[in-house]
């Protein structure tokens, strides 16, 4: 399994310059089926992504939380619905309820095809879903779209922090916040 802290960003604070290429994205694949992990890894690693694995729901939360606590959260979690210990639905709900993980996009990858299963995934907070068997083009497209949103959101947050810092510096001494 890849080290979740390996790509911890080093920053001296916000800067007005545009962010450089965010580099490889960090993905967490959560699936208890090894062949599914290997397939997803083959497609996504080929795209230059750093991939880590979790094989049950509880481990998924542990790995995602540890990465966030180390300042190197995952950019995307690909989450199977039917896993031991905690289902993908439960994992997604807990991630979205945790402020440190709530902004991490979740792509549900599932063999379940019923409308009710998809509705339950959306209600749990997933950002998108993909049905098995996996179509490589569809997987790459959905991952690319979710990562684009993630990186734009990060850039917006970085710029807002910079503007706030500039605004604070321009206030006269003793001015109310």
From TrEMBL:
Residues 1-26 are annotated as: Disordered. Residues 1-16 have a biased composition (Low complexity). The keyword Metal-binding does not apply. Residues 26-147 form the Response regulatory domain. SUPFAM superfamilies: CheY-like. The modification 4-aspartylphosphate is found at residue 80. Keywords: Phosphoprotein. InterPro entries: Bact_response_regulator (IPR050595), CheY-like_superfamily (IPR011006), Sig_transdc_resp-reg_receiver (IPR001789). PROSITE patterns: RESPONSE_REGULATORY. This is Regulator of RpoS.
């Amino acid at each position: 399994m890849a080290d979740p802290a390996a790509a911890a960003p080093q920053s001296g604070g916000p800067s007005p310059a545009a962010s450089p290429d965010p580099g490889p994205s960090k993905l967490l694949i959560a699936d208890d089926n090894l062949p599914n992990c290997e397939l997803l890894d083959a497609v996504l690693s080929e795209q230059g992504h750093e991939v880590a694995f979790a094989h049950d729901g509880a481990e998924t939360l542990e790995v995602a939380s540890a990465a966030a606590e180390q300042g190197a959260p995952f950019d995307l979690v690909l989450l199977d619905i039917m896993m031991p210990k905690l289902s993908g639905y439960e994992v997604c709900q807990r991630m979205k309820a945790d402020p440190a993980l709530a902004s991490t996009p979740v792509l549900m990858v599932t063999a379940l095809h019923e409308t009710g299963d998809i509705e339950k995934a959306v209600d749990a907070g997933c950002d998108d879903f993909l049905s098995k068997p996996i179509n490589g083009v569809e997987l790459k497209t959905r991952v690319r779209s979710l990562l684009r949103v993630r990186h734009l959101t990060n850039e917006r947050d970085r710029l807002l922090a910079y503007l706030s810092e500039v605004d604070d510096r321009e206030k006269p001494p003793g001015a109310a916040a």
